[in-house]
Amino acid sequence: MPDITPSPEILDVSNLNVYYGRVHVLQDVSFSMGAEPLGILGRNGMGKSTLVKALMGFIPTASGEANFEGTNIIGLPSYKINRRGIAYVPQGRRIFRSLTVHEH
What gap in Å lies between CA 23 and CA 4, rounded to an integer? Predict the structure, then answer.
């Protein structure tokens, strides 16, 4: 029988809030994930890219936490977040064309 035990949490996001001007675009977003792949699905304009950009430090957050391997990364400069092993590759851009998404 395959082992279906979930992996330990690597990323734990709690009550993340982001505004664009006065518009509250992410409201109390919370989720946890382990090492397994995770998909974020939704229609255009639902906040998927905003969520990832906030986690990467590209846009400011109003409140909330994102603990990556036990350390809150909210407020860290994006280069420090990247050094921890988190990367953002926008849709349609492959760093190395010969590699699959998983290999990247």
Answer: 41
pLDDT of residue 70: 92
Integer Cα distance of 72 and 91 in angstroms: 26
Question: For the whole model, what pTM was predicted?
Answer: 0.78
Name all domains of the chain by residue range, CATH numbers in brackets: 11-83 (3.40.50.300)
Long-range contacts of 3-11 (CB under 8 A, 24+ apart): 6/34, 6/36, 7/34, 7/35, 7/36, 8/34, 8/35, 9/33, 9/34, 10/34, 10/35, 10/68, 10/69, 11/55, 11/66, 11/67, 11/68
Residue type, 47: G
The whole-number pLDDT of residue 4 equals 62
